[in-house]
């Protein structure tokens, strides 16, 4: 089934209900949303875009994003979402690798692609050519697509090299959306989803369940993440859902306290995409209340590996609530999860190994990259590259990416464990731990620390706190103060850059 069927079904039952909004302004009902997407599909067909053809979307967060996305799907084509924060050269590389001959863009981004020498045809949704699509007759129904046919070609963030294209089918997206209702949260017609994070990633992929029930889709006037704007829109719309990276949750808590905001109107914040430290989520829950749900997934299994429920994020009565809060929850309904050794054999409860997953939300492979596919999909299991352990209740606690684990004197040190301890200190705003080659011990533990405002790095105090909470061999041997941690466009800390800084200083 074509995933675009959901939009047409909702347009039948909620035709005159508001669908797309820019700030407080309604720009389309569900009937208009479906008709606009159908016209985009008709335009694509007229230009010879056949089913299965990749079509890139390099756009800012604007209502037209969803119109284009559903238009691509209605035509049976494959959406290739590209983060609007990428450099023109990075975006052009994705366009070329995906073999997309057409790119939908918005103001400022079409110029970046042109300057990068992108040879694909560009359609700017802010220009008159796109407006003329409105004169076409809309496609009456989506082109039929099979469960295993591609809907989305998602390029990974590429923190360690060129990004890889993850092939995502209509079945994967449908299963992901249905699992959301079972494992994460309910969505109702009176709800609103707010696109403050890039629509090319988790925030955008979560449009599907909101389309299914006929909820409102709101794009901030800023086109991105602005804490004060989020609080204002939440108070206006009420019952607001949004996706946020952990760094965004931390910023929202900080700014809310500064502005005296309570988060009125926010009903659900789903966080994912990086490590959420216990200290940060405890502070967020204390301020905003029970509005948080955690999802664990990868591009290779989009938003679909595990979930930590609203209850588990909020509960403080269970004897092991801190351990559960530090986990990524339990396996979602459509997948099996296990922890394996270096050969993929399952490990006993409590032992740390690589997290493995299989099920209907797991990718069939990487786009035109059989070598990478063979390394990542083994006997039907996705090797996530994340290290973790399962407890007796099925909760998965992540430790780190396998490549980030530090081995010192023959003992394993997981950076996240050290980072969690250091972040307990109010003087520490951010921290990232990496390994440094040591001739005798193999590696040293090194911490890069961003201190809170008006605080200075005191090695003795940090040492004392570590020694009081973790084994001596896990204590950082050196601390480096930074103004900011280097991050990619998705808010993930670039440990490769930290290692480069470390090499220079060494």
Tell me what the structure shows:
The chain has 506 residues and is of the alpha/beta class. The protein has a domain of 101 residues: GMP Synthetase, Chain A, domain 3 (2-Layer Sandwich), CATH 3.30.300. It has 18 helices and 25 strands. It has a 9-stranded mixed beta sheet. Strands 16, 17, 18, 19 and 20 form a 5-stranded antiparallel beta sheet that branches. Strands 4-3-5-6 form a 4-stranded parallel beta sheet, sandwiched between helices. α11 links the parallel β11 and β12. α1 runs parallel beside α9 and α4 packs across α5. The termini are far apart. The relative contact order is 0.08. The mean pLDDT is 93.
SSE inventory with pairings:
Blueprint: H1 5-13, E1 18-22, E2 25-29, H2 30-46, E3 54-58, H3 64-74, E4 78-81, H4 88-98, E5 102-105, H5 109-115, E6 121-124, H6 128-131, E7 150-155, E8 165-169, H7 170-184, E9 192-194, H8 202-205, H9 207-213, E10 216-219, H10 227-237, E11 240-244, H11 246-259, E12 266-271, H12 278-288, E13 292-298, E14 301-308, H13 310-314, H14 321-325, E15 330-331, E16 335-340, E17 353-359, H15 370-376, E18 377-378, E19 381-390, E20 396-401, E21 406-408, E22 411-413, H16 415-422, E23 428-438, E24 442-451, H17 459-467, E25 478-481, H18 495-505
Parallel strand pairs: 1-10, 3-4, 3-5, 5-6, 9-10, 9-11, 11-12, 12-13, 24-25
Antiparallel strand pairs: 1-2, 7-8, 13-14, 14-15, 16-17, 17-19, 18-19, 19-20, 21-22, 23-24
List keywords for this structure.
globular, GMP Synthetase, Chain A, domain 3, 506 residues, 25 strands, 33% helix, alpha/beta, 5-stranded antiparallel β-sheet
């Amino acid at each position: 089934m074509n995933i675009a069927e959901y939009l047409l079904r909702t347009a039948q039952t909620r035709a005159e209900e508001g669908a797309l909004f820019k700030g407080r302004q309604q720009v389309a009902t569900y009937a208009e949303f479906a008709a606009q997407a159908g016209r985009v599909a008709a335009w694509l067909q007229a230009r010879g875009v056949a089913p299965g053809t990749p079509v890139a979307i390099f756009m800012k967060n604007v209502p037209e994003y969803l119109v284009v996305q559903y238009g691509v799907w209605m035509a049976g084509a494959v959406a290739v979402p590209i983060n609007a924060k990428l450099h023109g050269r990075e975006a052009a590389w994705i366009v070329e690798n995906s073999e997309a001959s057409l790119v939908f863009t918005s103001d400022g981004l079409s110029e970046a692609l042109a300057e990068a020498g992108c040879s694909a045809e560009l359609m700017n949704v802010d220009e008159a050519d796109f407006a003329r699509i409105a004169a076409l007759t809309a496609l009456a129904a989506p082109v039929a697509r099979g469960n295993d046919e591609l809907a989305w070609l998602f390029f990974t963030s590429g923190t360690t090299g060129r990004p890889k294209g993850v092939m995502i089918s209509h079945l994967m997206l449908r299963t992901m959306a249905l699992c959301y209702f079972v494992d994460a949260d309910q969505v109702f017609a009176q709800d609103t989803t707010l696109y403050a994070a890039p629509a090319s990633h988790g925030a955008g992929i979560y449009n599907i369940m909101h389309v299914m029930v006929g909820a409102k889709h709101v794009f901030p006037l800023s086109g991105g993440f602005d804490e004060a704007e989020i609080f204002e829109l939440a108070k206006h719309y009420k019952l607001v859902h949004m996706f946020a990276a952990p760094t965004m949750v931390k910023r929202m808590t900080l700014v809310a306290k500064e502005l005296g905001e309570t988060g009125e109107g926010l009903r659900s914040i789903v966080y994912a995409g990086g490590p959420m430290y216990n200290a940060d989520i405890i502070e967020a829950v204390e301020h905003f209340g029970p509005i948080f749900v955690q999802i664990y997934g990868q591009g290779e299994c989009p938003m679909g590996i595990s979930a930590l429920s609203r209850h588990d994020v909020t509960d403080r009565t269970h004897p092991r609530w801190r351990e559960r809060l530090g986990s990524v929850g339990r396996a979602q309904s459509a997948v099996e999860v296990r922890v394996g050794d270096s050969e993929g054999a399952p490990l006993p409860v409590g032992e740390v190994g690589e997290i493995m997953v299989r099920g209907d939300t797991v990718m069939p492979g990487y786009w035109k990259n059989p070598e990478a596919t063979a390394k990542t999909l083994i006997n039907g299991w996705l090797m996530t590259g994340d290290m973790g352990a399962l407890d007796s209740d099925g909760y998965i606690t992540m430790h780190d990416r396998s490549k980030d684990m530090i081995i010192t004197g023959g003992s394993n040190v997981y950076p996240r464990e050290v980072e969690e301890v250091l972040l307990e200190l109010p003087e520490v705003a951010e921290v990232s731990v990496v390994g440094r080659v040591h001739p005798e011990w193999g590696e040293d533990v090194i911490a890069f620390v961003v201190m809170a405002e008006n605080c200075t790095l005191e090695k003795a105090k940090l040492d004392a706190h570590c020694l009081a909470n973790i084994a001596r061999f896990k204590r950082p041997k050196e601390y480096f103060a930074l103004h900011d941690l280097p991050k990619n466009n998705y808010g993930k800390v670039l440990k490769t850059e930290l290692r480069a800084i470390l090499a220079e200083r060494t």
